[in-house]
Amino acid sequence: MKRDTTPYKVVHRALLKPNEICLWQDIQDQLEDLTEQSNEIQEIMGRSYGMPEVDDDELEAELEALGDEIALDDDASYLDEASKAPNAPTSVPGADSVTNKVMYL
Questions:
Q1: Are 46 and 52 in contact (CB under 8 A)?
Q2: How far apart are the first and last CA of the chain?
Q3: How many domains does the chain contain in total?
Q4: Can you list the alpha helix ranges (DSSP code H) found in 46-79?
Q5: Which residues contact 15 (CB under 8 A, 6 or more apart)?
Q6: In a domain? residue 37
Q7: How far apart are the C-alpha atoms of 74 and 80, rounded to whole Å?
């Protein structure tokens, strides 16, 4: 009698060992759980939350209008505060007050 050694048959025989059947059942259960979780996520992501449909062209036109409005705004008074900010320190803070210049690590 000729023994069939096709890869499928070899794997199938290996999977049917009694102690490994439980392992494959556990894996199958985990895959079912993951599939259910994936379906729940897909359902949640596909929900509509009462948001009106927005036309892409309309949204693009509004964004362009906002850009034009900002470009036409000559009032730059909001930048005055930023220009009055103090300069960044050029030395290590407190270095002038150290009497012993040796630093210990």
A1: no
A2: 81
A3: 1
A4: 56-72
A5: 21, 24
A6: yes
A7: 13
Residue 22 structure tokens: 């439980």
Mean pLDDT confidence for 36-46: 91
Q: What is the length of the chain?
A: 105
Q: Which of the given ranges, 21-30, 41-50, 54-63, has the highest pLDDT on average?
A: 54-63
14 touches 20 (CB < 8 A): yes
Q: Please indicate, yes or no, if residue 32 is contained in any of the structural domains.
A: yes
Instruction: Give the range of the structural domain holding residue 7, as residue numbers without chain letter.
Output: 1-46
Quick: pLDDT tens for 66-99. 887 777 777 777 777 777 878 888 888 776 666 5
Per-residue model confidence (pLDDT) at position 18: 64
Contact of 24 with 15, CB cutoff 8 Å: yes
The full DSSP string for 5-42 is: --HHHHHHHHHTSHHHHHHHHHHHHHHHHHHHHHHHHH
Look at residue 4 and tell me if it is in a domain: yes
Instruction: Tell me, yes or no, whether 10 lies in a domain.
Output: yes
Token output for 80:
């005055």
